[in-house]
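HOLO CASE FILE
Compound: manganese (II) ion
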Amino acid sequence: MNPYLDISTEVQEALAAGKPVVALESTIISHGMPYPQNVETALNVERIIRENGAMPATIAIIKGRLKAGLSADEIEYLGRKGYDVTKASRRDLPVLVAKGEDGATTVATTMIIAAMAGIKVFATGGVGGVHRGAEVTMDISADLEELAQTPVLVVCAGAKSILDLGLTLEYLETKGVPVIGYGTDELPAFYTRKSGFGVDYRLDTPEEVAAAFRAKLTMELKGGMLVTNPIPEEYSMDPDIINKAIDDAVAEANAKGIKGKQTTPFLLAKIKDITGGDSLASNIRLVYNNAKLAAQIAARL
Ligand code: PSU
Ligand code: MN
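Model generated. Tokens follow.
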């Protein structure tokens, strides 16, 4: 086993017994939501995964250790510490580990640590992608490169239009990452069920998704799979309101010269401010919805 990796006892036992396990990220805890909703959501997500017959493994870096499976105290610690925990993508791992620091894992890093631990399914809210204006800034999330090379299935609610959704799909196509619409032909846009962009394949049951990913693993095709699960209708937002909030947030980020790893957290926080917390409520609901689907897929894999 990787000498930097700690797998919690219950996650180890589940893996050894061949039981379904679902990985969860921690950037969403430290950077994606305010305290205390972040901790409450993270604990609820774990409960939902258990209720659906799988073992949750929240992933983070704590004092330089790569953790698969956190205690409630560790989740509380990351949630309280918030932005003071370094947002850790692939390039951040070596220095954080060597210095014994904490890191909140993005989709990319969560995939890396999940793969090290032998976990194949991961649930989150939104993935990183190709940012608007990337043809000049080259701001393309390391999440996409990870999906291209690490064999973990990621369940998300599509991508927010803080990204250029068309370019994000093109990039995933180039990298050979299947983009699945769960019960939909259209890429969901996180807060809304529709984006105007088509997915590669529509699959309607956890069995079908598990079968497709199993085929990918068996063929030893490099990389993961992106399952996009639309937010439940009752929690979805008015597209005009949310798109206006996103446009305003992107304009402010550009005016302030926000760059690099700050961009995504800045935009997420702005959107929450502009919509007065409605987007946070939707965000929480879609994460629960993804956790449930990921547990169902993991159970059939
Ligand atoms: N998009 C969201 N919510 C999030 C993130 C992205 O809608 O919480 C987080 C995830 O952890 C994702 C990361 O992996 O931001 C991507 O950051 P960047 O764009 O800097 O790669
Ligand atoms: Mn970026």
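CASE NOTES: The first strand starts at residue 5 and ends at 7. Residues 139, 141, 263 surround manganese (II) ion (ligand 2) (CB under 6 Å).
CLOSED: yes
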